[in-house]
Design goal:
Blueprint lengths: L6 E4 L14 E5 L8 H11 L7 E10 L8 E14 L2 E14 L2 E10 L21 E10 L5
Antiparallel strand pairs: 1-2, 2-3, 3-4, 4-5, 5-6, 6-7
């Protein structure tokens, strides 16, 4: 499990509740990913993610499905983020299954997606101290957001 807190972004809606895709981006600093094993981190940064050339991943939100408009004032809601996700200059559409709790202008939740290594032409790790690696990358984004009326 690799983790980072170096994630920035926002989702912007039009007054009709449509995602403004040009202003709805999330950026992840891949070079900051850490696990419980420094040798693995180094290998993944250098060989799998090539963070010296491609230090960041970008997630552009194109659409949100299953979330009411106006945004709910309270409660737990399940929806999908439809994104164009870019890693190492390869962009593909990913669907993030999302559960969020709304409480006034505060939103907390988790978005999840998964894909095989070849989706982004990533080299699957092969290290002597790792017995095996599934061909499945699972990404999870825990988020805390504030709803703002700015345009």
């Amino acid at each position: 499990v690799g983790e980072t807190k170096e994630v920035k972004g926002s989702i912007t809606f039009t007054d009709k509740g449509v995602v403004n895709a040009t202003k709805s981006n999330i950026t992840v600093n891949l070079a900051s990913l850490k696990t419980d094993e420094e040798r693995r981190d180094r290998y993944v940064r250098q060989n799998t993610l090539k963070t010296s050339l491609y230090p960041k991943a970008s997630v552009k939100i194109k659409k949100i499905e299953g979330l009411s408009w106006p945004l709910p004032p309270s409660g737990k809601h399940t929806f999908q983020l439809i994104t164009d996700t870019t890693i190492q200059e390869i962009t593909t559409t990913l669907i993030w299954e999302t559960v969020a709790s709304f409480d006034g202008d505060k939103v907390t939740g988790r978005a999840k997606t998964n894909f095989p290594f070849e989706t982004f032409d990533l080299k699957k790790p092969t290290l002597f101290f790792i017995l095996s690696v599934e061909n499945n990358i699972r990404l999870e984004l825990d988020f805390i957001a504030t709803i703002s009326e700015k345009s």
